[in-house]
Amino acid sequence: MIVNMSDGATEQQIDHIIQRIREAGFQPHVTRGTERTIVAAVGSGGRRHEIEALSVAPGVDNVVAIAQPFKLVSRQTRPERSVVVVGAEMTRTDLAGPSTVAANAVGKKRSAGIRIGGPEVVVIAGPCSVESREQLLETAEGVKRAGANMLRGGAYKPRTSPYEFQGLGIEALKILREARDLTGLPVVTEVMSTEDVDLISEYAEMLQVGARNMQNFALLRRLAVIKKPILLKRGPSASVKEWLLAAEYLLSGGNDQVVLCERGIKTFDTGMRNTFDLAAVALAKELSHWPVMADPSHGTGKQSLIGVVSRAALAVGADGIIIEVHPCPERALSDGPQSLDLSQFESVMRSLSAPLPAVLGAGAPRA
Amino acid sequence: MIVNMSDGATEQQIDHIIQRIREAGFQPHVTRGTERTIVAAVGSGGRRHEIEALSVAPGVDNVVAIAQPFKLVSRQTRPERSVVVVGAEMTRTDLAGPSTVAANAVGKKRSAGIRIGGPEVVVIAGPCSVESREQLLETAEGVKRAGANMLRGGAYKPRTSPYEFQGLGIEALKILREARDLTGLPVVTEVMSTEDVDLISEYAEMLQVGARNMQNFALLRRLAVIKKPILLKRGPSASVKEWLLAAEYLLSGGNDQVVLCERGIKTFDTGMRNTFDLAAVALAKELSHWPVMADPSHGTGKQSLIGVVSRAALAVGADGIIIEVHPCPERALSDGPQSLDLSQFESVMRSLSAPLPAVLGAGAPRA
Amino acid sequence: MIVNMSDGATEQQIDHIIQRIREAGFQPHVTRGTERTIVAAVGSGGRRHEIEALSVAPGVDNVVAIAQPFKLVSRQTRPERSVVVVGAEMTRTDLAGPSTVAANAVGKKRSAGIRIGGPEVVVIAGPCSVESREQLLETAEGVKRAGANMLRGGAYKPRTSPYEFQGLGIEALKILREARDLTGLPVVTEVMSTEDVDLISEYAEMLQVGARNMQNFALLRRLAVIKKPILLKRGPSASVKEWLLAAEYLLSGGNDQVVLCERGIKTFDTGMRNTFDLAAVALAKELSHWPVMADPSHGTGKQSLIGVVSRAALAVGADGIIIEVHPCPERALSDGPQSLDLSQFESVMRSLSAPLPAVLGAGAPRA
Amino acid sequence: MIVNMSDGATEQQIDHIIQRIREAGFQPHVTRGTERTIVAAVGSGGRRHEIEALSVAPGVDNVVAIAQPFKLVSRQTRPERSVVVVGAEMTRTDLAGPSTVAANAVGKKRSAGIRIGGPEVVVIAGPCSVESREQLLETAEGVKRAGANMLRGGAYKPRTSPYEFQGLGIEALKILREARDLTGLPVVTEVMSTEDVDLISEYAEMLQVGARNMQNFALLRRLAVIKKPILLKRGPSASVKEWLLAAEYLLSGGNDQVVLCERGIKTFDTGMRNTFDLAAVALAKELSHWPVMADPSHGTGKQSLIGVVSRAALAVGADGIIIEVHPCPERALSDGPQSLDLSQFESVMRSLSAPLPAVLGAGAPRA
Question: What is the DSSP letter of C74?
């Protein structure tokens, strides 16, 4: 931390800052320039907020932080990339509980878990909301056939208006479990409240913190003490730094299975639903060792763009993508405009392996 | 809702839209232009999301909503302004519960309640966080003396980093109650989780939904069924429309004591903590009959600007302001840079009644 | 400037930075912490960009600027507030040139100039575009009667689409001159191109740099060498700092008659035309000694809000306001939705002198 | 255009709107709902702004545009993609003019032109500013060797502060010409003012409109009548729609060689220089038939991210990328932090042809 004194700061004011820096647990280090004096607060054990508050002390112009405030999420803590495994616990015993599928069928679907953050990208697909058993099972089988690795589907829905469809709740969770048992695809679904954490943990292999709850700190603290992986979406107005600090809540609380997910931010341009910040995926991977996914459905809100931005997400280094798929998007109870139908999803999946275009003249001999 | 067909839409595609509009509970109304056809969905009982989802139907260019989606919050429902009364329940019996103050002292402090939304503005003041008994009582008495009408103070704090001060919790609630009993000022404090609603309701006269929880719908639904007034802060990236829809969650769930509070939004300009959207106060009052307050402390994040922007908030029609005050801002555990000390707060209070500057030549006779 | 070395920076890398800081004309000052080393570049004569570029030197984490980059615009240069006088040159001789009004009539209208930045606020009013002689003269006389101090009107219009009305050009300038002669109100009009500077300077008492040209540096450099006051609107995505640096272009080039004007910025909320950043008016006045005006018409884009936000602009310390007025807004060729008609403008002018609402209980004796 | 009447609109008010729609050159079409009435303005020959202005007519709630306002830029005008050829005019005679290179050398470098918008992507590279002959020639030869197709370099620089390096002007143009003659790479350079258009047109094969000049309409109108291709950068706060309308200025004025270039927008997140809006590249290509490029240097402002976001630009469909390269970024007079050195650029060029990562399990047989 640097305390930047104003031009006319007195010796007494500078001494006060030096003393306060010591009280806050740092060593003060004074640099006197021709015009102004700066005082650095050096060391790692001090209380940062006490230095920040010095911005209103007499004779202080401003206070500047120079080190990043996060720890466990940072690559400085762990240079190698972390891998999060989803669904490794999907065993026969586990499935026998709330599942309605016969044990022997389950046996065959048993999974070793999906590794997010490894050399291959993971594709999560499914409807925005679970609307009915038929809708979900059809979607789950379709996305499985097309190559998806995990299933998504909302049971509890965060909706801007109270008059919109709010999700089927526990009924949706049961349908998701049935779909998981049929397809072997681990399930991720959103948790909106601390009170739902236990129930949802029973049914889902991964819990999603939605964008609007990224700074629901009570929820983050609750999720920090469960044993399930968390998909932490970036808030619509969260900086990358705030997003990583939200992850730090999970990590410092004890949950070390965190996957970040960029899903677009709010900007002045309303031509698309959000501004999909793909460079932030690259930045988050530079700053953190945890996996980072991307959500082209919310990122653009536009069916026709999902194929190319999915490819871009892979190009920029995303460890996976999450795509909304619905058997009939124009009849979806939520997010229809950004959902793919099953044949569109298959076509997007095929497009993921196509090569990037060549540079003009790259093949030709150069003069 | 208007479904705008694309240029080359076929008759079959138009017929499909007409049929889908009927299925969604609206009457279709077709207008054929020289270049394109539009189909209006007319009526009030239909399912809007089904029309929205038609944006991905074949032959459709886009879908445009023309009516506002909110109801109970709207001035169209109730043209007169609503007044929210805070603290009218502050009787001897109530206070006898968790309070530690002698009953006879309490009797003298008994309040008829603070009316928010009437002809006079309400001033809420107090520290960002309750840090100690001494700090809060000193602040409470100081702001009371300077003319504040209510006391604020955080017990449960939403902090960007898990390593920052998280609030004293129930201990803070008890200190707030003591301060209330001493000063007679009703208390507002933030609730961050559904699990804390009952406890905080016991201690505070008004519950605040913080900016980052504005779209914590589980929390809104829980607060909709309590009998306390709610101070609903606007989210840092919430449009005025989304803010009013968050209020609609409270209202449609049964809580009809809602006060809105503008506290600044996130924009590209980081020269101040937020961009204080004072015109949004005026717009919210135009659209809604509920009271609207303003928070110049978070709105600017800058001690030196709080006086003038408080005056601007009054000028623009705010029903009240909420200001952070701390006995020694440079030692505050949170929000020091934007807190006033007690003498600065007194000076801001005095400035509120000063007249606006005159227009050049307005007093002079005109040619 | 502070060069913040990364955790594992070597001695050699630190030495390289020390040497580069010397080459750039600063003194290096090293502070070694337990975890990292910072090197301050001290002094005022050095080349800042060379220090900024060190952010890509080996072993450097980042570079932080601690001093503001502006000079002539800053209150540190001049603590007293500057006043800009508009129209003092409006003498008989001047008017005899391009004016079409008889000299004796002109004699009576002669002005001592409008002082912007003094104790009283200045009101500029008039149509977005000059559309016809009748429209402008009617507006000019109306706003004069209601108490406006200056006349605005666009001759060259920056329009988002080439198919929109682009202004009457020189014909509009002549009509503005005629209106000035009839009413005595000095004229401000926008200049969009270096090529129009001479012509417009002949006709207008003040030249406006529109928001979209705030960083048209060729235009700023050209306007820096004329003898007319400039109204410099803030760009829709300019920070306050960038806005002040645009003013610095005018000042460092020789024009010392600069009036800043906040007119709203672009944010995610499209419920109003712009987000009117009234706190930025206060911040600009804190940082700069030059006058700062506000434009509630563009700031909100909404006729019904202009009255209250004008009052808020005065409350926050604006030295004046600029309001769009049209005899019949619904027939305006541009900006109709945000224009007042003459009777609405009169009513806004009257509202400017009304007192702010009182604080609840402020008149009553306190317990 | 749809005029949406308010709830209590009278018959007289509706009749007034109907009449005004006719006056504006459209056919009115009335739809009466149970709650409100809407009036569509049908047809293509009318004056849109007259309908927009009706938002302030009595009884009107709001006015909604349903068709896009652009024409020549739109894919609806021309479904096939347009190709812009740069540098086809680079013949011996042309070069004989201001060039200092011997004619016979020139003969060998002669180019058939670079096709932007074809199946292969184009790479433009070079320094932010031309700083010296040595710096530019070294860079030009280096980027040519690494596979770049065109050379960039600033002669006239738009700088936020007047105290920053402003470019070498005509001297830089001459150096660019020399570099072109040596390497055969066509040159693109920024034009900031109408007054420089002729001079720069003599020296450069393509003229760039910088982001801050995207809505410098005087400049756009001037560039519309020259015979050189234009690289039109998106403004930092321009929506895709506004960007396309800026292109419409060029096209409607007669210049049909327009290449769009996304370079990042300003948002609340300042962790990178801009928010690189890669999805906007895809959207612009969906809406327009003109080529769209991307600028990862300004898009991120961060050397270390340029490789991956360049790949993402290709993935999303960009017709080319433009990258800042400097022999020694830490000594660059501008944009050092976002410039690659020559070996980094080579490495980025090589990375462009690497395949995208595979989907987990995509190669394996599916259960």
Answer: B
Residue among D17, D38, D13, D15 at smallest CA distance from D26: D17
User: Which positions ≥6 away from B211 have C-beta within 8 Å?
Assistant: B233, B234, B235, B236, B263, B298
The nearest alpha carbon in chain B to D266 belongs to B268
Beta carbons within 8 Å of B169's beta carbon, 6+ residues apart: B155, B156
D234, D357, D222: which is closest to D292 by C-alpha?
D234
User: Does the distance separating the beta carbons of A366 and D268 come in below 8 Å?
Assistant: no
Instruction: Judge residue B185's burial from the number of C-beta atoms within 10 Å of its C-beta, 0-12 exposed, 13-18 middle, 19 or more buried.
Output: buried
The candidate with the shortest Cα–Cα distance to A187, out of A94, A279, A273, A117, is A94
Q: Which residues are registered as beta bridge partners of D74?
A: D288
Does ipTM surpass 0.85 in this model?
Answer: yes
Calculate the CA C119 to chain-centre distance: 19
CA-CA-CA-CA torsion sign (A37, A42, A45, A49): positive
- What's the whole-model pTM score? 0.92
How far apart CA A139 and CA A341 sit, in angstroms, is 9
In DSSP terms, A308 is beta-bridged to none
B269 inside 8 A of chain A by CB = no
- Model pLDDT, residue A111: 59
- B365 interfacial to chain C (CB closer than 8 Å): no
DSSP 8-state assignment for residue A142: H
pLDDT bucket at B108, cuts 50 / 70 / 90: very low
The arrangement of strands across the sheet holding C27-32 comes to: C27-32, C37-42, C2-5, C60-64
Asked if A65 is an interface residue toward chain B (Cβ–Cβ < 8 A), one would say no
Which residues, at least 6 apart from A366, have a Cβ–Cβ distance to it below 8 Å? D144, D145, D147
First to last CA, chain D: 54
Number of helical (H) and strand (E) elements in chain D, helices listed first? 13, 14
> Does residue C313 contact residue C294 with C-beta atoms inside 8 Å?
yes
CA atoms within 13 A on the CB side of D249: 27
Query: Which residues sit opposite A37 in a β-bridge?
Result: A32
Calpha distance D215→C209 (Å, rounded): 13
Contact C40, C31 (CB under 8 A): yes
DSSP state of A337: G
Residue with tokens 């065993």: A91
Q: Which residues 15-54 of D are in CB contact (within 8 Å) with A?
A: none
How far is B272 from chain C, CA to nearest CA, in Å? 8
Residue whose tokens read 């907020």: A49
Quick one: which of B303, B275, B263 has its CA closest to C262?
Answer: B275
Chain centroid to Cα B256, Å, comes to: 14
The residue type at A155? A
Distance CA C2, CA C39 (A): 6
- Judge whether B103 and B70 are in contact, CB under 8 Å: no
Rg (CA), chain B: 24
Q: pLDDT per residue over D121-162, tens digit each?
A: 999 999 999 999 999 999 999 999 999 999 999 999 888 888
Q: In the numeric block, which tokens belong to residue D156?
A: 């006239």
Any chains having at least 3 CB pairs less than 8 A from chain D are A, B, C
DSSP for A339-362 reads -B-HHHHHHHHHHTTSPPPPBTTS
Q: How far apart are CA B280 and CA B262, in angstroms?
A: 7
Q: Distance between CA atoms of C148 and A102, rounded to whole angstroms?
A: 83
Residue C183 near residue C139 (C-beta atoms within 8 A): no
Q: Which two tokens stand for residue A191?
A: 């948790």
Q: What share of chain B is helix, strand, coil (3-state, %, to 5)?
A: 40, 20, 45
Dihedral (CA of C154, C158, C161, C166) sign? positive
Partner residues linked to D260 by β-bridges: D232, D292
| pLDDT, tens digit, 9 for 90 and up, residues C251-296 | 999 999 999 999 999 999 999 999 999 999 999 999 999 999 999 9
